[in-house]
Design a protein that fits this description.
The complex is a heterodimer of chains A (about 450) and B (about 180). Helices cover about 70% and strands about 0% of the residues of chain A. In chain A, a hairpin with a 6-residue loop joins strand 1 (about 435) and strand 2. Chain A is an all-alpha fold and about 450 residues long. The longest helix of chain A is centred in the middle third of the chain and has 31 residues, at about 265-295. With about 180 residues, chain B is mostly helical. In chain B, about 60% of the residues lie in helices and about 0% in strands. Chain B has helices at about 20-50, 55-80, 95-125, 140, 145-165, and strands at about 130, 135. In chain B, helix 1 packs antiparallel against helix 2 and helix 2 packs parallel to helix 5 (about 145-165). The radius of gyration of chain B is 19 Å and the shape is elongated. Residues about 170-180 of chain B have low confidence and may be disordered. Classes of the chains: A mainly alpha (about 450), B mainly alpha (about 180). At the A-B interface, helix 1, helix 2, helix 3, helix 4 and helix 7 of A face helix 1, helix 2 and helix 3 of B.
């Protein structure tokens, strides 16, 4: 059997078993085991790859960013940020829907998890939206769409996985995600303003109410400062910054804001132990899949197809990759997708001489969009379940919001200088800049 | 008797009470792994900042991390909390659902057997490789793969036997609770 057929069978087994109800990690391993059987690779080396796939230092950041979300949610300190969002945009048309978008931008700076964002919003703002007469389909649609921002504004778990597997600067990806994250957030707000439900008209908050809300949420809002400040100043790696954020929540935030929660901390940690292992089990399996794909020269075949159509035109390469990842994101989870397809992305990034951080941001935005597309739009699945509407109705209501994502993805492709502006100024080495021989400033090729 | 959060109350129809202690142990061990991993990163930062880095701490960190992942993988198998591509199975007729549930668990069981057999082979090979600078045999890390596989295989047998006896229904949909992006 030729390599192409083996790859096709491996992918078909994974998707077939996955859609037959086999857990993702085991469906992926099954596909890989078939490929091993058809080649000269030993079973023990591929099972060993399960361990080596997660034995990467950069992946150590994932549990911390999940733990930050878990601690913030379970300690119930997020409502302060909801109040702050309310003083900022609660008076606007569709006030509660606007609060969802603004809160998601705040929360994205704290947690790298879209699902934590959905859980918080669906349980707090969701019932209020219900009372104010928003139709539930729209509530689910706007919560799910806004939750994707958690994967764009740093810290982002997708960016950590992308950086770790693609050997791309995680700090650069974090900073590159800021612009698309804000674009999605403000895009949702504009949509709410002109096309969303009206909601209940509220009085504009006074300056005093705003400063009071800001004061109350000052402690939680220190977390993004700690994480990005630590990384940008070079004091900490992303993993260590995540740890410092966890320590800050455990030893400062919870004792000051919700002392009663201290006795539940051990449970939070134990829950986080399970929480981080689930996506990382899929990472372990996907890394074995990616290894097998590389062994079978899959990246050369797929990148050959793409380069046949796109040549070395970076815009065409990115466009075709976006199309590919929109399709992939419809059917599978983002984290295994990044790992499985990373060899292909790497080859095409070099072929088109694209900045790796730019390519990473485009791929992460595209996969974040996959969180709200059927049949496997996990954020939308969760939001519709929490809000209590059928997934199909929520999908229909989300369709117009896809425009926000298409516009953001197109913007990221066509304006790399805007996407890379923050990394270039705050972390120049992350985007390939190097010290000028004169000793002052940086030289940034391609800008 | 174990209770929440040590043992999940969901899908009791698929569980033997005799294995509840094992689930509780895995839950606590997973928590211990993340606490150990957090502490080792913390000490790593502190010792580096004060100019006396303990280089072996990084090996403790990666060990706790990997153990946590594979322990969690086994725990998630018992709690049926792994990531799924679809929840179509829970919407099927009882007969069709039964067939899919059995099939899914047989597949997971086979994969777990591969993890046991070839993971053990790996472990034996890795006892001859060492991590620098502590010279800890790599096998001490990779042993967790067959151990996790053994737990998973045990839990799949448990669910198969109980599912065929009591039915697979009555569990909540697993999709919403278990994804973390």
């Amino acid at each position: 059997m030729s390599n192409g057929w083996i790859i096709l069978c491996m992918a078909a087994i994974f998707l077939g078993l996955g859609y037959a109800g086999v857990p993702v990690a085991f469906a992926i391993i099954s596909g890989v085991l078939f490929a091993v059987y058809m080649t000269h690779v030993s079973f023990s080396s591929i099972i060993g790859q399960l361990f080596h796939g997660i034995d990467t230092e950069a992946l150590l950041a994932v549990p911390f960013f999940l733990l930050v979300g878990e601690l913030m949610t379970s300690a119930n300190v997020t409502h302060r940020m909801i109040v702050l969002a309310q003083t900022l945009v609660g008076h606007m048309r569709g006030g509660l829907a606007q609060i969802v978008a603004v809160f998601s931008m705040f929360f994205a700076g704290i947690s790298g998890s879209s699902t934590a964002d959905v859980a918080v919003l669906a349980r707090t703002v969701g019932p209020e939206m219900d009372k104010e007469g928003y139709d539930r389909d729209y509530t689910a649609a706007v919560i799910a769409s806004a939750s994707t921002i958690a994967n764009l504004i740093p810290p982002s778990i997708m960016a950590v996985v992308y950086g770790a597997t693609g050997n791309v600067s995680i700090g650069g990806l974090f900073l590159g995600g800021v612009v698309p994250g804000l674009l999605v957030g403000f895009g949702i707000m504009i949509f709410n303003r002109f096309f969303g439900p009206i909601g209940v008209k509220r009085e504009r908050a006074t300056f005093g109410q705003f400063t009071e809300a800001l004061k109350l949420s000052a402690l939680p809002l220190m977390i993004p400062v700690i994480i990005m400040g630590g990384i940008l100043s070079g004091l900490f790696t992303p993993t260590e910054a995540g740890l410092i954020a966890v320590a800050y929540i455990t030893f400062v935030l919870i004792p000051l804001l919700n002392r009663k929660h201290i006795k539940h901390l051990a449970t939070d940690f134990a829950n986080a132990g399970l929480l981080y292992s689930i996506p990382l089990a899929a990472v372990a399996a996907a890394s074995a899949f990616g290894w097998m794909l590389a062994y079978l020269k899959g990246p050369d075949v797929v990148s050959g197809w793409i380069s046949e159509v796109a040549g070395t035109n970076p815009l065409m390469i990115m466009f075709l990759l976006v199309v590919l990842f929109v399709i992939i994101g419809d059917f599978m989870d983002a984290i295994p997708a990044i790992i499985i397809f990373m060899p292909i992305i790497s080859v095409l990034t070099q072929l088109g001489e694209i900045n790796p951080v730019h390519m990473g941001v485009v791929i992460v935005v595209t996969l974040a969009f996959g969180l709200i597309t059927p049949p496997y739009g996990i954020s939308l699945l969760m939001a519709s379940k929490f809000v209590g509407v059928s997934f199909t109705k929520a999908v229909v209501r989300t369709l117009p919001l896809y425009l926000v994502f298409f516009a953001t993805i197109a913007f990221c492709i066509f304006f790399p200088q805007v996407v890379l502006w923050l990394p270039k100024y705050l972390l120049p080495e992350s985007v390939g800049c190097f010290h000028a021989p004169s000793g002052t400033g940086y030289i940034c090729p391609g800008f | 008797m174990w209770s929440e959060p040590f043992v999940s109350a969901r899908e009791r129809n698929l569980k033997w009470p005799a294995l509840d202690g094992l689930e509780a142990f895995l839950y606590v061990a997973g928590g211990a792994a993340i606490i150990g991993f957090s502490l080792s990163v913390l000490f790593d930062v502190i010792t580096r900042q004060i100019g006396y880095p303990w280089l072996w701490l990084q090996q403790v960190t990666t060990g706790c991390f990997a153990y946590g992942v594979f322990i969690g993988m086994a725990l998630a198998a018992r709690r049926n909390e792994h990531m799924y591509l679809t929840e179509i199975v829970s919407t099927l007729s009882p007969e069709a659902r039964r067939a899919f549930e059995v099939f899914s668990r047989v597949v997971v069981f086979i994969v777990a057997m591969f993890m046991i057999i070839f993971g053990w082979e790996n472990f034996l090979n890795d006892m001859g490789s060492f991590r620098m600078p502590s010279l800890i045999p790599l096998g001490y890390y990779t042993i967790i793969v067959p151990v996790s596989g053994a737990f998973i295989a045990l839990f799949e047998i448990e669910q198969l036997v109980n599912g065929l006896k009591n039915g697979f229904g009555s569990g909540e949909s697993h999709v919403a609770e278990t994804h973390h992006e």
